[in-house]
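Any chance you could type out a protein's amino acid sequence plus the matching backbone structure tokens because I've never seen that pairing?

——
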Amino acid sequence: FVEPDIMREKLFNVFRFRGVGDPSVHKDENDYRLLANYTSCFLGLADTLRRAKQYQEAIGVAKRVSELLPYDWRPYAYLLQLYAESEQPEDSVQQLLKRAEEVVQKSKVLAEEQFIERLYFNLGYAYKQRGKTQKAIDSMIKILSINKNFRPALEALIGIYYAERDKENLTKLLETWVENNPEDAQTMTMLNQLKSPDFEFMEKPPQP
């Protein structure tokens, strides 16, 4: 629901954003949260461009809001997705990821739980969509090394291993998850089914 020409004109040529990124201008927590609405505007335009396969322009829009609001992690999460989808060089992806982690670790505003995990999740999801399965797996495993109960990463890995009929890695994944999350009865049931002698892969994995 974005008209890109109008939105681009407003964000880049009309609105000045004076004081938005100026640290000498006092802002309290409520101000920061209100300013974050600008992120949504820029990323709405970037996503419209992404869906039109205009990746370089989408990257430019996301970079612009990361400069305006350097404490907001969301532009970096989106940039990681754009970099992976548009097949930017791997060293560029890793440099961006390092910068994103620094922003998240230093930021004391717009605090949200599981932001580092979401950086890697966006990256892994984009790799998965591009068919770069091992890179997607590496990203999801990295998430679980940071947060042992980040369920979206579990579900993404289950989907990958199930599609590849990789019973060995799927079993190891579920065993580790159940060990770290012993209250998860659904995943325990799935693990028991997997270990059953008459187990057979279905077309789609059951929901854990």
Summary: The chain has a mean pLDDT of 88.
